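For consistency, the fold was encoded as tokens, which produced the following:
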Amino acid sequence: MTKRKKAIVISLCISVLLMLAKFTAFFISGSNAILTDAAESIVNVIASSFAFYSVYLSTRPRDENHPYGHGKVEFFSAFVEGTLILIAGIIIIGKSIYSILSPEPLQQLFEGTLIIAIAGLINLVTGLFLIRTGRQENSMALVADGRHLLTDTYTSAALVVGLVLMLLTDLYWLDSLLSVAAGLYIVFTGYKLTRESVGGLMDESDLKLVSAVVDILQDHRADAWIDVHNLRTQQYGPELHIDCHVTLPYYYDLTRVHKEISDIDDLINEKKLRETELFIHADPCLPQCCHYCRMKDCPVRQEPQSKDFTWTIENTTRNKKHFENELL
């Protein structure tokens, strides 16, 4: 079993146990605040189950129907999880407002508070573990599940503080008010997660990742790589796909062009940002490139180098050679 699969199985088992514990706390106390936490635990179990399936599917090898692999399913998993969080938050807010208007007596509040506090600590440890593993394995599904558990931890911590206040002050109307506040936070978290997953499904650029790739190319730049442009990235689960255009001296033969492109491929992969597949289109240089070309002893140079471009996100992601950017 892979590291990703082990992590999500651990998350699923813990989610089931904590859901049972929180509902036990609700039944013995009758607290709406505790019910809020228990209801979110149902979402945790459903989301962890879906995340487990998505992690299993994303690790399957490429096939004829999925030439880029199955990694995109992790973004879909995160979208479903974010949607479930949103729905849970809205239901919690509705139930809490109803309870403000129709309050019910509370019982065994201390025992219920203790159960919620212990469950929150367990969720904190599990959530941090999932986020760390997800980042190591480049798994959106694990990171999303970890963030979900951290959200549960924060709401549990807020509820514990409120429940302790109720125990000390007998202000039981705080119960439903805390539920509303927790519900609003849950809705906000669900929105953020849904927004991020939609961005991944629509191949939204990860600017930090693109910046890291550009920095690697700039720091190890060969003289023959006259410019890089139209650089784009796509993420498929743990795999990264990059395509770009590289301007090379027009007099290079096919063997030399292949070597330069292979050097770029090796450079990106040896830095181990993540497993990366590159699609590089070679462009021939033009006379207009001479003034920023670094090639020494170039046999066809028409003017000396008078300018040097530092590769940045701005000039490498445009679909224009650097001299064309100067004309803008």
